[in-house]
Design goal:
With 342 residues, this protein is α/β, with parallel strands linked by helices. It has helices at residues 44-58, 86-97, 118-126, 142-149, 165-179, 198-209, 238-241, 266-273, 277-280, 303-306, 313-340; strands at 8-13, 16-21, 75-80, 101-106, 132-137, 153-159, 187-191, 213-217, 232-235, 247-250, 288-290. A 5-stranded parallel sheet has the order 9-8-7-10-11. It has a 4-stranded parallel sheet with strand order 4-3-5-6, sandwiched between helices. The chain is globular and about 60 Å long. It binds phosphoric acid mono(formamide)ester. Phosphoric acid mono(formamide)ester binds at residues 84-87, 158, 167, 292-294.
């Protein structure tokens, strides 16, 4: 059990949201982590806390007034030096729904293009007193690099091949609508380019911590190094891998990160690993197809499946806003608690 924690409840009152706190909980509890760098730093109870908090916030998206005063006066920097649609937008939406002010920095158009280092760029950002910096960077370890040097909280929005913690959390949150809160004993199949995927790494860590059995189906050339030491069952044939699974995550083929020669023929890859409605028929009847996006139709997932009722791909996008609200509001509560204690 995560002891002494505040379970915040969000009650709808006159179309606005009010926070109610469980009176029986210990008011002295402070979230222990300054940063969110990887799911490996979170205990099972902390993961469940964030999923529970996201669930209490999720309802807000269908309300006429999509705003609550949880982060009024707080600044969130969105520092994305690699392309993003879903993650950047959903962190921005999440911050604004919590009443925080956001400002964005991208590599393109910034002084990084003139040769400014990552360290100097982030020290410059810190001089503007942000509370939280959300960072995406092509180098593995970039978020840790910032966390070690800056006083403000850092949230890793994807660093190289290493980790994408809020993607794993939103994948789990999406599956709560299918599985409820008990994930133990379920089987999740992940398909595709695991070698270059931070989503694969974060999903495996998070889902195994929640008691899920993870299968991986990939061509041998796209298996991560040291896969024998991972808690995953490896398949190369998709029809075998998909049999009786409870959910499926298809990964994007990350051609921008691949060395030449890893996949000589994309048509051959698609014929063996593109997830289709026919594959879903071999899984459990309730199984749904997921993908972190962006999807490559006809390569990762068939267009027919992506547009069907067996796809959770756009549910994942909605879940992303709720999970990012849960993460940001948890870090903001920690900042407030530490300031009060000064
Ligand atoms: N899933 C994901 O990280 O998507 P974006 O690259 O669009 O943010």
């Amino acid at each position: 059990m995560l002891t002494g924690i505040f379970y915040e409840k969000y009650a709808v009152i006159h179309d606005t949201f009010k926070i109610e706190r469980e009176p029986s909980m210990d008011a002295s509890f402070v979230w222990p982590h300054k940063d969110l760098l990887d799911v490996t730093q979170l205990s099972r109870e902390e993961i469940e806390y964030l999923l529970e908090k996201a669930a209490s916030l999720h309802e807000m998206h269908s309300r006429p007034i999509k705003k609550m005063p949880v982060m009024t006066g707080k600044n969130v920097v969105l520092f994305f030096s690699e392309n993003s649609t879903r993650t950047r937008t959903s962190f921005d939406v999440a911050s604004k729904r919590l009443s925080a002010d956001t400002f964005s920095l991208t590599a393109s158009g910034s002084s990084m293009e003139k040769g400014e280092s990552l360290k100097d760029t982030t020290l410059t950002l810190q001089a503007m007193s942000p509370d939280i910096i959300v960072v995406r960077h092509p180098s593995s370890g970039a978020a840790q690099f910032l966390a070690d040097r800056l006083h403000c909280s850092i949230v890793n929005a994807g660093d190289g091949w290493h980790a994408h913690p809020t993607q794993a959390l939103l994948d789990a949150f999406t599956l709560r609508s299918l599985w409820g809160t008990d994930f133990a004993g379920k089987t999740l199949l992940i398909i595709g380019d695991a070698a270059h995927s931070r989503v694969f790494r974060s999903d495996v860590h998070l889902f195994t911590k929640l008691g899920v059995h993870v299968r991986l189906c990939s061509p041998r050339s796209l298996l991560p190094a040291g896969i024998d030491n991972w808690p995953v069952e490896v398949f190369t044939d998709l029809k075998d891998a998909v049999r009786d699974v409870d959910a499926i995550v298809s990964l994007r083929l990350q051609q921008e990160r691949m060395k030449a020669g890893l996949l000589p023929d994309l048509r051959e890859y698609a014929s063996r690993y593109c997830l289709t409605l026919d594959h879903l028929k071999l899984a459990k009847p309730s199984a749904m197809a997921m993908h972190p996006g962006p999807i490559l139709r006809g390569l990762d997932v068939s267009a027919e499946l992506a547009d069907s009722c067996k796809s959770f791909i756009f549910n994942q996008v909605a879940s992303g806003v709720s999970i990012r609200m849960a993460v940001l509001s948890t870090l903001a509560a920690r900042i407030d608690a530490l300031r009060k204690g000064e």
